[in-house]
Design a protein that fits this description.
Elements (H helix, E strand, L loop, with lengths): L7 E6 L2 E2 L10 H16 L7 E4 L7 H8 L4 E8 L16 E5 L3 H10 L4 H10 L8 E7 L5 E9 L2 E8 L3 H5 L5 E6 L2 E5 L6 E2 L2 E2 H12 L3 E8 L2 E9 L31 E3 L1 E4 L2 E8 L13 E4 L7 H6 L2 E4 L7 H9 L3 E3 L3 H7 L4 E5 L4 E4 L1
Length: 375
Amino acid sequence: MSGPDALLRLTGDLGSAGPAGDAGDRDRSVLGGKAVGLAALLRAGAAIPDTWVVPVGAEPTSAALARLTAVAPRWAVRSSATVEDGTGLSYAGLFRSELDVPAEKVPEAIAAVRASAHSGRVAAYRERTIAGPLDVEMAVLLQPFRPPVRSGLWLGRGPGRGRLEWTEGSGETLVSGAVTPAWEEWTPEGRTAGSERDAWECGGQPVGAACAMVQEALGVPADLEFAQLEETLVWLQFRPMTATLGEAPGERAAQPGDRRTDQPADERGQRLVRGIAASGGLATARGLRLRDVDDPRWEPGAVLLTEHTDPDWVPLMAEAAALVTAEGGMLCHAAIVARELGVPCVTGVGAAALARLGSGRPLAVDGSAGTVAVL
């Protein structure tokens, strides 16, 4: 595909397809995976942000970028790598995106997003998940930036089934795992469990039901990212599920009078803590609590304990026997990448529990049950 000034319009207003709006997997080498996913959402009838694409290898002219200044004063500059959001691997969170960028700084943000295609964290992920070399090229998405009221993620388990997680404000804290989110479980019968008494609604409709409808239109179990802007949902990303999402053992719908607390010890006292079952599997190894990705105390084969991870932690995640975080849910980037790496993962255990686990004693991590036992 080509366009004037090497800048293609995916959509120019909500619901209106532009020249790249019919993009499919055949266009991945030019537009990247995230653009292909947005085009699929558009064809499914979902509202996506106004989006322009800088194709792989293209250089938009200063005149083209100047015209965008008249559209919005601030921009989201997002990755759309050729390997991103595929049916086999997601590369979730591994490439850089820049939010709330002043219009005059967009060229610098484009360069930074492109450079992330060759980062060490991408190399570590590829080494663990792919045999042989694979080129990574980068297209870039440009979208007017609007601060959301609330941000959400959905991971599908099948027709009408999936898990919804959300947080107030920007989705960056949600996808990074910096917060332990509110959640809901959905089946074809509707909402079956949740951390809050009432379902999240937007525009008079349960958001979980809207996710299930979009998933049905896409025709596959879907990994969706979206935001609430006033009383409207705007869909930001779609990729097919790359790993099976386990069930959430022991979770129930919130009841009147419930309140959130930090993770307590259960009937075994200090020896067992419970969190969120983020990536299945069993592992037994010494727990090692790190606050910095460059901590020289790291030992490959240990259970990695940390408050939360960002994509720079992927090389350590690839070497860990298991991952346990104080914050995060089943749908944050750390959980998605852990499932793809085959690393057991328990998230959201709470700061107090993480401190107990960091004594240096051996730990038994059950990523399917969401438990960590001190041996």
